[in-house]
Design brief:
This protein is of the alpha+beta class. The chain has 2 helices and 6 strands.
Length: about 130
């Protein structure tokens, strides 16, 4: 067992937020010097064509010396979003009948060198 595996096992306090296909894990962990830090893990469920599924995980580490600035910026950014757009979710993924202002029934593809390709705005950034 390497030292990274050992460090990951030192969970002190944990909370879980389930949000649709995503689950967020907030874990207080201990360093070898017995100081605490926070990990936030996003786990997202993907379904394969055969019906099986897998998870993709992304983790960030936040250390005590960054807590105040991190908290301030997170609060500022979330307040900005709520102030500008409200707290109602307005996305195609969450509302099946959502239509963009410029939506038409026409084909959204473009012709490039004799080949039809999807518009670059149709990229699903969740797959990156």
């Amino acid at each position: 067992m390497n030292s990274n595996d050992m460090m990951e096992k030192e969970e002190i306090f944990s909370k879980v937020l389930r949000a649709g296909r995503r689950t967020y894990f907030f874990d207080v962990r201990a360093t070898k010097a017995d100081d605490y830090y926070l990990t936030i893990t996003e786990s997202k469920k993907f379904t394969n064509d055969d019906g099986s599924f897998h998870y993709k995980k992304h983790k960030i580490y936040i250390y005590k010396e960054d807590f105040n600035e991190f908290k301030d910026i997170l609060s500022e950014m979330t307040s900005y979003i709520i102030d500008e757009k409200g707290d109602e979710v307005i996305s195609e993924r969450h509302q099946k009948d959502f239509k963009k202002e410029n939506d038409t029934d026409e084909d959204d593809s473009i012709e490039t060198f004799g080949k039809s390709v999807e518009s670059f705005t149709d990229i699903d950034f969740d797959d990156i």
